Amino acid sequence: MAPGETVRAKFHCDNVEKTDDGSTAQFSAVTSGSKENDSFFEATPFGSLNIGTVRGDHFEQGKNYYLDFSLAEEEGSQEEGQEEDQEEEKEK
Fold first, then answer.
1. Please, where are the H alpha helices in the chain?
2. CB 29, CB 11: distance < 8 Å
3. Cβ atoms of residues 79 and 87 within 8 Å
4. Average pLDDT of the chain, as a whole number
C-alpha cells in the first residue's frame, strides 16, 4: 500500500458484549444484501474482526461500519523523511 492510499472495507457488527472494562465487539465483512455490499465484497478485504474498547458505546449490534486501512508511517522513518523532501520540492 502506498503512503496516502486508503482501502475501505465494510463490516457488520455481529455482537457487542459489555465487560467490566468496557466492551468487546465482533464483526464480519458484508458479503451481500445490497448493490453496495456486493461491490465491497468483490473489491475489498473480507474476514472477521474482534476488538475491545474501554468505552462501551462505540458500536451497536446489527449495524454496518466502514473500516479504513491506511499505511501507518513510523515517526522519523526514512520514508517519512523522503516524503517531506518531496513536499518541499513541490513547494519551490
1. 35-43, 78-91
2. yes
3. no
4. 84
Pairing label, strands 64-70, 6-19? antiparallel
Task: Write out the three cell numbers for 69.
Answer: 486501512
Phi and psi, residue 68, nearest 5° = -100, 130
Question: For residue 57, what pLDDT band results from cuts at 50, 70 and 90?
Answer: confident
**Nearest CA among 48, 58, 42 for reference residue 11:** 48
Whole-number Å distance between alpha carbons of 39 and 90: 36
Give domain limits for the chain: 7-91
Let me know: does 65 contact 30? Beta carbons within 8 Å.
Answer: no
DSSP symbol at 47: S
Q: For 25-34, write each residue's pLDDT tens digit.
A: 999 999 888 8
What is the rounded CA–CA span in Å between residue 15 and residue 62? 8
- pTM to 2 decimal places: 0.70
pLDDT band at 89 (very low <50, low <70, confident <90, very high): low
